[in-house]
Amino acid sequence: MHKSPFNVVHEQLGAHFSDFNGWSLPAHFGDVPVESTSLSESCAVVDLCSFGRIQIGGKEAKETINSVFNTKNGKIAPDSWVWAKPVNPDTETLCRIFRLNGGYTLLTQPADTETLCQQLEAAAEKGVTVTNVTEKTAMLGLYGPKAFDSMRGVLPFDIDHLDRGDVEKMSLMMMGFTLLRGSWLNGEGLELICPAAAGPLAAGAIAKYRHKHNITPAGMDCLQAAMAEIINPV
Question: How far apart are CA 197 and CA 120, in angstroms?
């Protein structure tokens, strides 16, 4: 059973844990209807550590990705992310890919990580590296129509320049953080990826200011229900 780097903060907030694709994650924090309302009407923070993060690097990384995935416009601009689906017509798997600092990162739904990693490795051109960094990193999602505004008061750096679909690398206390504007729910949101060791720091800061900025901790029960209603964006 994998444990989220955020678990110590989840415990402090009264999380009720369950098994989600081999990860011990909050199922809820005691009131699922309140969590669901926050997700749809204001801002909810959810643990995305079980979602896969696969880095693809090398001169032919783009060609490798295009041989495995279809994207909406056929390309990925620097410092941005796009929706993607495997070229295999028999699968409905939905993914996201972002391009940052010359490299690419594939974001997968929890059950798809290993399979998609193997497909990328099998298709990799010479010199292309495929690295599963899911367990070495941590990921939080701030989701809901007021998520971006809520996070303005929490993050110690300016984010007003980020448009939906943007990705940016930032540094805090000598650690690199990646911010994505967007969400798995195809709506407003801000996602943060950081080294696993920095997880408690990142989650602790949000927990500290959650009341002031109207941020509600939400569990996987709430997130999975919302994801089941997504209209295919690709």
Answer: 27
